[in-house]
# Entry
Amino acid sequence: FNWINGGELDLGFIAEEVEEVDPLLASYEDGALVGVKYEKMSALLVKAIQDLHEENVNLKERIERLEMRLK
# Structure
């Protein structure tokens, strides 16, 4: 993204997009969105990885069962 002030290219999350996912991860000043609570992101990201891992395991098991039926 590019910073609003100065246009400098940077890496990170866009606060408006983060707020859409979970407003608790956005930081506000006087009711206005001003940034991202990066220190809180780890918990959400770890949970997402856990969910994806579980889904992946379930899909692999399903594929194995389907492949066995085809033999």
Summary: The mean pLDDT is 93. Strands lie at 26-29, 32-36.
